[in-house]
Amino acid sequence: DTGVSQDPRHKITKRGQNVTFRCDPISEHNRLYWYRQTLGQGPEFLTYFQNEAQLEKSRLLSDRFSAERPKGSFSTLEIQRTEQGDSAMYLCASSPPGAGAYYEQYFGPGTRLTVT
Amino acid sequence: KQEVTQIPAALSVPEGENLVLNCSFTDSAIYNLQWFRQDPGKGLTSLLLIQSSQREQTSGRLNASLDKSSGRSTLYIAASQPGDSATYLCAVMGASGTYKYIFGTGTRLKVLA
Predict the structure, then answer these.
(1) Beta bridge partners of B36
(2) Is residue B44 within 8 angstroms of chain A, CB to CB?
(3) For residue B95, what is the DSSP state?
(4) Which residue from B84, A55, B66, A102 is spatially nearest to A46, judged by alpha carbons?
């Protein structure tokens, strides 16, 4: 079973540009989460998908952010008109269907975004 | 609003010591609590998950306990090794039906050889 993968691992962009990140969850995991982590802080929740439905969005997810999960497989996170404050590590996690211990989340390696 | 606090923020110990890392949370209505390890610049590695009905979980040299009523969890690391050096994060999942984790800011551990 391969783990959660994210692409790209690093992205440097100029302020005002659009960026898109991809996350491939563990096969057959129907839940997918995006988090953002800034230096010295714990990850903060951004959004959650169950299959293809986006069921929760954080207030951190401004209008410049959009996430999709077509067909309930991979997910993309797009940031439009990037700002320096968007510089962070973007983490994706997935968990399998079921309750209890099945809510355990498995994280990918993250995408490090630097906005110059 | 759930808040998660981890103490200490940083810890430096000689190899071989037994360690206790602390995590506290303000809302005891939790579903799960999960401990993670994070190496610099990397993603998170799951260490242990404790469901709300459980009191502790063990994996190798790691033992995590949960006292839901007092809003506390501890991660015990036995016989620490330099390879244990990393940041340890505690995360809680609320019982309200949302499946997101609220994370603490972590404890940065350095084990000296």
Answers:
(1) B46, B89
(2) yes
(3) S
(4) A55
**Residue entry with tokens 């506290």:** B24
Per-residue pLDDT of A16-47, as tens digits, reads: 999 999 999 999 899 999 999 999 999 999 99
Cβ contacts of A17 within 8 Å, gap of 6 or more: A81, A82
By Cβ distance, the residue of A4, A103, A108 closest to B31 is A103
DSSP helix/strand/coil, B62 = strand
| A67-96 pLDDT per residue, tens | 999 988 999 999 999 999 999 999 999 998
CB neighbours of residue B7 within 10 Å: 11
* Rg of chain B on CA atoms, in Å: 14
Site of tokens 């783990």: A3
